[in-house]
């Protein structure tokens, strides 16, 4: 005790005041402010998404068409990264110093505390290399992903490709998709997305300050397992598809092959094509631009999107609907003097002078005259107005799958084109037109448009003698081998089975007898029935077409082949179809090697045309006033506009 | 001279203090267990873990305390100068052969255990200061005594700064309370010291010229509102000039003497830089841990920030975070009140000493413990810059526990003997 003892109160006061400051601060951050509690949760909880394995797609014999390959996303939590050997790191993952800095800055800007992607999709080798050294690089860790891998690099358009979801996808799905998910963009990947994608799993991990997992939140109560996507078995035959793509290499064209008993598509070739592995991995973006800018449009799915006038193959349909309408039969004979005359001076030329032509031989020799008469009977000889008879004819033809979508399990199917009578009535100005006005339809020219799929389907109908199953690419789904019900429905075309025989006989003779337009591609030991065709092409060489089915009895394969700019069907399309059929039925090809080589090495790609500016087409304005159909018509048939006008006068009443 | 001691230790140990001391040790022990809990060695007695070791430290501290209470208190008064000199020597020695831990040349390795001279320097300085001030006391405290007393402190401070251990060095400034209580420092001076700290902070928050301008305005106001005598005006001018010089000095020292990481810490504290990933990380995590404890805490061994090591130095400088997170406001406030109780009790003990040596020494003990308490907890709460000093009796560490225990028990010994006949002359 001394004279300054009163000062003890000051000292006590200071101590109490200091403690009060501490208590007030404690009270504030612990009781009043709850942002710290939330930050604590953020520190500790890490949600790890388990991405499911996407369903695998196999061919009809369980061989893999597309499978999953593991890749690794490299993630970084910038705050955690301290004192790393940047040079070694860059070397391990194969980037340069600037690349490292730019990626790291991007991650830091996103969030210094949360993990974000540093580098996507490291390959398995890079990952293995990095994995050994990963402990040296605090703050970096790896997440498993898978990407698609195409072991045979075939069927690119059919299989389609996947990509990360866009904001639009997420919106459309009402938040089902999250950023970082994959979604099918085209082909089967897109059509069967719901089945292939599987289900995301989630792990709620507790992590320590080094972001090392320490356990599961609530003992895994809120964790869910990932569910793998359903595997699909496609109807494709892998070996057949490989052959088809090889045959069409360096040509623009299509092959579609169907199994008639089921509607299963055995081969689906669109050329030019591309290696589907191009749409995977880090080069995806560049490759996509390259393909998009390719003037020959490799991403165009020709089997279902390209539309051609069917040409002489349509005669098969003509013959069938005419028989069913009881307007002709197998004994009907027309005389072919080298062409069909109609109206006053209309003349539709034929390839040869065929003389008396029966139904069978009209198919075998592809006689235009026969079908000019047949069409005229269908339209003008029914005892009713031609325009309404046309509608009946159209309805019968449409049942063969022409002018309507077949319902294949791929997006973007073109329905083709088969105009109604209203179209012609509008064009001709009155409904008093006759077969003479659109006679080109009789031989599959004019305004008619058909896709290669529809054409192959017609072959399947003929092979089955009167019915078909919707053509589809996926044979069955999942382990339970579920088949979608719409593909098991048998659809009749409304033509009795007996009417098919003469047509089939004609097609068989075309292939197997001398004089037939496809005699050169006859297969030893197999009776293949087929038809050549030549589709008009106002821009260059005609397109070559061939369709067929085999064997005649108990057919196993129906096929349609288109080769653009190839001239006659017999030279390119028929040999290709023949080889495909023989390969499928006998596993061998007996065609002479020199022909095989000619096909394999043939290059029919058009030269790259220089871009023509709009203004220079002024000159051609007059002829372009006609519809393209009319232009085509004009080419095939000798124009006699006065005759048509006279016709109008004649039928005016 | 006879001792009328019937009790073994003297007229009576202050059991309340011992109770408070032991409570703090045990609280520390349990929270170290939670802070560095190792699932492979869960037992709190496991000797390979820090909590097991702390248990041993506590046991040895109890023995140490016992020994101190047995030794005659005259020993302490007489040995003070020797102890002081030995400590100074050790402070020099550590600069040469000491182990560098965390940038500080602070530890001497003695095989079985390590010695931290700066911890014992605090004790030595208290004893030495008490002895010196006691010997030179008179009714009117002289400036010369103050100067020498200050010098006795400045020498160890300078040596510690060479390590460099700023935190320990700053502790010595708390002993201003001793000077204040003994009359060497006036209340006014204490106030000026407080204002200086405020000016220091303001100078860093705003530029020095703004602060000087404010001081100028205040000085003018002072002249305006008081009697405009010559004396007052001159005083006001003097105040203005000295304050301005101080401000400029602070600015100079801050920019040229302080190291950059120290500047960073201060600037983070003042909110001038927001760097939760760099310098501010420790404090940010500390706030998150304590703040997330909310009212009742998350429970013993259940603190997520603690369990997963989000707070650095969890068992030592930031041990309070574990308490805050696991015991919430209730637990934290209780701990603060325990310290306040201890400090007030120690003041009470110091005041009841007949020996002025004991009283001076007592105030030294209070100052040092108060400084550690306020700065350490304040740092975890983000109201004081991060200065690495332990929380007495609670932070992990044998050196720290022993030196605080010795510091405390010597006072208890004096107190136990306060009624003894043999007293050093008091004023």
Keywords:
heterodimer, A: 653 residues, alpha+beta, 6-stranded mixed β-sheet, 5-stranded antiparallel β-sheet, 22 strands, elongated, disordered C terminus, B: 427 residues, mainly alpha, 3-stranded antiparallel β-sheet, 16 helices, 3% strand
What's the gist of this structure?
The complex is a heterodimer of chains A (653) and B (427). Chain A has 653 residues and is an alpha+beta fold.
**Shape annotation of chain B:** globular
Overall pLDDT of chain A: 82
**What is the typical, i.e. mean, pLDDT of chain B?**
81
Strand line-up across the major sheet of chain B:
1-2-3
Largest sheet of chain A: 6 strands, mixed
State the low-pLDDT regions of chain B, or none. 1-6, 421-427
Beta content of chain B: under 5%
Order of helices and strands of chain B: HHHEEEHHHHHHHHHHHHH
Question: Radius of gyration of chain A from the CA trace?
Answer: 35 Å
Structural class of chain B: mainly alpha
Q: What's the total count of β strands of chain B?
A: 3
Number of helices of chain B: 16
Helix residue percentage of chain A? 25-40%
Q: What fraction, in percent, of the residue positions of chain B are helical?
A: 55-70%
């Amino acid at each position: 005790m001394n004279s300054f003892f009163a000062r003890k109160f000051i000292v006590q006061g200071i101590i109490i005041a200091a403690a009060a400051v501490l208590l007030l601060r404690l009270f504030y951050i612990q009781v009043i402010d709850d942002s710290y509690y939330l930050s604590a949760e953020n520190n500790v909880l890490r949600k790890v998404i388990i991405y499911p394995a996407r369903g695998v797609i196999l061919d009809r014999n369980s061989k893999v068409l597309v499978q999953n390959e593991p890749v690794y996303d490299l993630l970084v939590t910038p705050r955690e990264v301290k004192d790393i050997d940047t040079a070694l790191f860059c070397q391990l993952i194969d980037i340069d110093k600037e690349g490292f800095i730019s990626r790291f800055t991007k991650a830091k800007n996103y969030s210094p505390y949360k993990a974000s992607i540093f580098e996507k999709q490291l390959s398995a080798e890079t990952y293995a290399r990095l994995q050994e050294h990963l402990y040296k690089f605090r703050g970096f860790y790896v997440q498993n992903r898978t990407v698609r891998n195409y072991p045979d690099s075939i069927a690119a358009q059919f299989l389609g490709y996947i990509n990360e979801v866009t904001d639009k996808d997420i919106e459309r799905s009402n938040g089902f998709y999250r950023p970082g998910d994959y979604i099918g963009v085209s082909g089967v990947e897109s059509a069967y997305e719901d089945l292939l994608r599987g289900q995301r799993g989630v792990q709620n991990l507790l992590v320590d300050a080094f972001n090392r997992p320490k356990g599961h939140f609530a003992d895994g109560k809120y964790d869910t397992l990932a569910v793998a996507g359903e595997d699909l078995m496609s109807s494709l035959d892998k070996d057949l598809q490989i052959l088809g793509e090889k045959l069409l290499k360096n040509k623009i064209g299509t092959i579609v092959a169907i199994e008639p008993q089921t509607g299963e598509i055995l081969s689906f070739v669109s050329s030019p094509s591309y290696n589907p592995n191009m749409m995977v991995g880090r080069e995806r973006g560049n490759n996509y631009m390259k393909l998009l800018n390719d003037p020959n449009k490799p991403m165009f799915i020709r089997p279902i999107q390209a539309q051609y006038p069917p040409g002489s193959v349509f005669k098969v349909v003509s013959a069938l609907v005419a028989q069913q309408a009881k307007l002709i039969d197998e004994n009907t004979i027309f005389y072919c003097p080298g062409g069909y005359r109609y109206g006053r001076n209309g003349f539709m030329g034929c390839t040869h002078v065929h003389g008396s032509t029966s139904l069978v031989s009209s198919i075998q020799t592809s006689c235009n005259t026969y079908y000019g008469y047949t069409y005229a009977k269908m339209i003008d000889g029914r005892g009713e107005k031609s325009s309404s008879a046309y509608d009946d004819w159209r309805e019968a033809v449409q049942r063969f799958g022409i002018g309507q979508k077949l319902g294949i399990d791929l997006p973007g199917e073109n329905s083709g084109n088969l105009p109604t009578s209203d179209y012609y009535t509008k064009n001709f100005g009155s409904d008093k037109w006759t077969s003479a006005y659109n006679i080109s339809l009789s031989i599959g020219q004019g305004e008619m448009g058909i896709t290669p799929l529809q054409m192959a389907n017609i072959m399947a109908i003929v092979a089955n003698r009167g019915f078909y199953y919707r053509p589809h690419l996926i044979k069955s789904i999942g382990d339970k081998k579920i088949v979608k019900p719409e593909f098991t429905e048998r659809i009749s075309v409304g033509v009795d089975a007996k009417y098919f025989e003469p047509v089939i006989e004609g097609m068989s003779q075309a292939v197997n007898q001398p004089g037939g337009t496809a005699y050169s591609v006859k297969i030893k030991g197999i009776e293949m029935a087929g038809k050549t065709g030549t589709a008009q092409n106002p821009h260059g060489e005609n397109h070559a077409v061939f369709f067929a089915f085999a064997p005649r009895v108990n057919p196993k394969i129906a096929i349609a082949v288109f080769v653009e700019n190839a001239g006659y069907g017999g030279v390119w399309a028929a040999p290709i179809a023949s080889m495909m059929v023989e390969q499928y039925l006998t596993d061998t090809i007996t065609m002479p090697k020199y022909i095989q080589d000619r096909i394999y090495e043939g290059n029919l790609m058009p030269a790259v045309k220089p871009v023509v500016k709009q203004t220079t087409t002024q000159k051609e304005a007059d002829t372009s006033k006609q519809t393209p159909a009319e232009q085509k018509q004009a080419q095939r048939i000798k124009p006699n506009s006065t005759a048509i006008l006279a016709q109008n006068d004649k039928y005016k009443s | 001279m006879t001792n009328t001691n019937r009790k073994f230790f003297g007229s009576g140990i202050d059991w309340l203090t011992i109770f408070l001391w032991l409570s703090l040790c045990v609280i520390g022990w349990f929270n170290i267990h939670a802070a560095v809990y190792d699932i492979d060695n869960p037992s709190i007695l496991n000797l390979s873990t820090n909590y097991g070791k702390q248990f041993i430290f506590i046991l040895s501290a109890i023995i140490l305390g016992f020994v101190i209470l047995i030794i005659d208190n005259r020993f302490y008064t007489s040995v003070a100068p020797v102890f002081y000199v030995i400590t100074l020597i050790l402070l020099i020695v550590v600069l040469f052969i000491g182990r560098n831990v965390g940038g500080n040349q602070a530890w001497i390795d003695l095989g079985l255990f390590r010695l931290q001279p700066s911890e014992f320097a605090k004790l030595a300085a208290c004893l030495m200061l008490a002895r010196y001030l006691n010997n030179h006391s008179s009714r009117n405290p002289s400036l010369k005594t103050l100067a020498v007393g200050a010098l006795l402190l400045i020498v160890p401070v300078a040596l510690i700064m060479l390590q460099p251990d700023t935190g320990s060095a700053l502790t010595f400034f708390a002993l201003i309370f001793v000077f204040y209580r003994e009359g060497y420092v006036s209340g006014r001076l204490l106030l000026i010291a407080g204002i200086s700290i405020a000016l220091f902070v303001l100078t860093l928050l705003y530029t020095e010229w703004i602060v000087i301008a404010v001081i100028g305005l205040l000085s003018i106001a002072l002249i305006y509102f008081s009697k405009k005598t010559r004396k007052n005006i001159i005083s006001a001018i003097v105040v203005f000039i000295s304050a301005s010089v101080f401000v400029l000095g602070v600015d100079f020292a801050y920019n040229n003497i302080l190291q950059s990481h120290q500047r960073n810490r201060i600037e983070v504290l003042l909110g001038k830089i927001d760097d939760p990933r760099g310098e501010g990380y420790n404090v940010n995590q500390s706030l998150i841990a304590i703040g997330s404890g909310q009212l009742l805490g998350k429970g013993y061994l259940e603190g997520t920030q603690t369990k997963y090591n989000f707070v650095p130095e969890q068992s030592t400088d930031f041990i309070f975070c574990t308490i805050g997170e696991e015991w919430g406001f209730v637990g934290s406030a209780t701990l603060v009140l325990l310290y306040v109780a201890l400090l007030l009790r120690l003041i009470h003990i110091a005041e009841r000493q007949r020996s002025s040596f004991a009283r001076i020494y007592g105030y030294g003990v209070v100052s040092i413990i108060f400084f550690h308490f306020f700065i350490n907890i304040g740092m975890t709460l983000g109201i004081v810059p991060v200065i690495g000093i332990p929380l007495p009796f609670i932070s992990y560490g044998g050196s720290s526990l022993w030196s605080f225990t010795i510091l405390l028990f010597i006072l208890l010994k004096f107190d136990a003997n306060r009624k003894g006949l043999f007293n050093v002359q008091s004023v």
